[in-house]
């Protein structure tokens, strides 16, 4: 049932289970902390696996949710007790609200990480991943039980671990030091994880947390007598050491989580750019290497050869080769200088001049500064070719194309000269240009069409 249930259903189900656990435990007089922890961890694992998160992120989520759930639940219960007199009711409301808050926070994080997420993953899609997740959760649960036993030991008979944790968190120098060292450690160990040494990475985290916690506990527990003697009470050191482990582990997990979210979003952005580039390259290639273009080029070349205009035929072949060489060279380039694109357009225009000697005019009004800006390769040429494709080219009423730059934009405009037979158009070329520019720069391509003029404005990057 959980495999097919939506995330919202899972959250509501576990909120209800939490409420039942509190009610039953209060009725039989049993502590409900461990049972609530198990249900919270189970909900976290299910939500993470449904979103297809990697195992290390699942482990981090479980740890963070445990700590945050404990803190939020404790503070929430204290607030609700002021509003509701009945203890059981206050505790049920607190645990339900905490569960809902944690569940929807997990869903929000998954949506931020996987912005256009696929259909929720099947929990049984990877048996190996599921088994490793159970092992990790089991280890965390054992540590949680050990921590609960430790907190109920004589070491914390007259106080609580949260008091020492709050003292650490309320110390700005200690907190800043913990956060900065955690960021440095996480960055270094994540570089090691890319080489596949997962076990060494986890051992590195354990050693780092232990060493930093020991040093921090020693700093917090030292007492000076006079100006020389420095003493450390063992009980105080152990209390701060355990509290420091909790604080540092939580900080490390949050740093790992935030870093992973940014890394995944960056990777997704890179994949979107690659997909847009592939689509655009396909549209450009289809626009250039299509039967009409090849037919017209070969037909023009045949006419030059038949008329014994060998020099012009050779020049035509060289210009045609330059065009395809440029397209191949820019195949893996996201952007090219506008100057190179203009040179490419001039090659194309020279080919069209052989076919239409006096039927069109192409003029340029682009400054040297604008020439150094970047554009999507073949985009401007594709727009120029569209002008030839959709307009009549005659000597009596020439097609006039103007390419100009103004206000960080490049403008390609032409007069509208409708053909008697309208050319078929899918609009894919302009669609992919728009998507490509929006993916690269979040800027839009503007199109203005009237009965007399057609204008396209693309951003200069």
Condensed summary:
The chain is an alpha+beta fold and 461 residues long.
Model description:
With 461 residues, this protein is an alpha+beta fold. It folds into three domains: 1-152, no CATH class; 156-263, no CATH class; 289-459, 2-Layer Sandwich (Heat Shock Protein 90), CATH 3.30.565. Helices cover 68% and strands 10% of the residues. The protein has 15 helices and nine strands. The chain has helices spanning 7-28, 33-50, 55-83, 87-113, 127-151, 161-169, 172-193, 198-221, 234-288, 291-306, 310-329, 338-355, 368-371, 379-390, 428-441, and strands spanning 222-225, 229-232, 336-337, 360-365, 374-375, 399-406, 409-415, 446-449, 453-459. The strands form three sheets. It has a five-stranded mixed beta sheet, covered by helices on one side. A two-stranded antiparallel ribbon has the order 1-2. A two-stranded antiparallel ribbon has the order 3-5. Strand 6 and strand 7 form a beta hairpin. It is elongated. Residues 115-126 and 225-229 have low confidence and may be disordered.
């Amino acid at each position: 049932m959980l495999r097919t249930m939506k995330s919202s259903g899972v959250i509501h189900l576990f909120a209800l289970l939490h409420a039942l656990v509190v009610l039953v435990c209060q009725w039989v007089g049993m502590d409900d902390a461990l049972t609530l922890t198990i249900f919270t961890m189970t909900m976290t694992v299910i939500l993470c696996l449904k979103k297809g998160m990697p195992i290390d992120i699942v482990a981090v989520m479980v740890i963070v949710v445990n700590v945050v759930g404990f803190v939020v639940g404790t503070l929430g219960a204290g607030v609700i007790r002021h509003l509701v007199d009945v203890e059981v009711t206050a505790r049920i409301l607190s645990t339900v609200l905490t569960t809902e808050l944690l569940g929807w926070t997990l869903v929000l994080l998954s949506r931020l990480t996987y912005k256009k997420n696929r259909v929720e993953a099947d929990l049984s899609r990877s048996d190996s991943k599921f088994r490793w997740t159970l092992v990790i959760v089991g280890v965390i649960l054992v540590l949680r039980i050990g921590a609960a036993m430790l907190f109920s030991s004589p070491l914390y008979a007259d106080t609580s671990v949260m008091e020492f944790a709050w003292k650490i968190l309320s110390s700005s120098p200690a907190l800043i030091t913990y956060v900065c060292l955690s960021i440095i450690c996480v960055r270094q160990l994540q570089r090691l994880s890319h080489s596949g040494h997962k076990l060494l990475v986890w051992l590195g985290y354990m050693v780092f947390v232990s060493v930093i916690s020991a040093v921090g506990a020693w700093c917090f527990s030292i007492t000076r007598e006079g100006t020389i003697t420095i003493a450390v009470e063992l009980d105080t050191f152990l209390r701060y050491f355990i509290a420091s482990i909790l604080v540092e582990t939580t900080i490390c997990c949050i740093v790992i989580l935030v870093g992973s979210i940014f890394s995944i979003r960056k990777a997704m952005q890179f994949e979107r750019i690659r997909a847009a580039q592939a689509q655009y390259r396909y549209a450009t290639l289809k626009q250039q290497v299509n039967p009409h273009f090849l037919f017209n080029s070969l037909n023009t070349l045949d006419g030059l050869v038949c008329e014994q205009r060998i020099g012009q035929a050779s020049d035509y072949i060289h210009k045609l080769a330059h065009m395809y060489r440029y397209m191949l060279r820019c195949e893996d380039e996201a952007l090219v200088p506008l100057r190179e694109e203009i040179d490419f357009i001039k090659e194309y225009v020279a080919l069209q001049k052989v076919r239409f000697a006096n039927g069109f005019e192409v003029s340029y009004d682009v400054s040297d500064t604008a020439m150094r800006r970047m554009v999507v390769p073949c985009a401007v040429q594709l727009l120029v070719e569209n002008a030839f494709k959709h307009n009549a080219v005659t000597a009596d009423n020439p097609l006039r194309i103007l390419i100009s730059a103004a206000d960080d934009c490049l403008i390609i405009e032409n007069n509208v000269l409708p053909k008697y037979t309208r050319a078929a158009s899918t609009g894919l070329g302009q669609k992919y240009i728009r998507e490509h520019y929006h993916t690269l720069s979040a800027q839009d391509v503007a199109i203005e069409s009237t009965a007399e003029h057609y204008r396209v404005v693309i951003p200069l990057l």
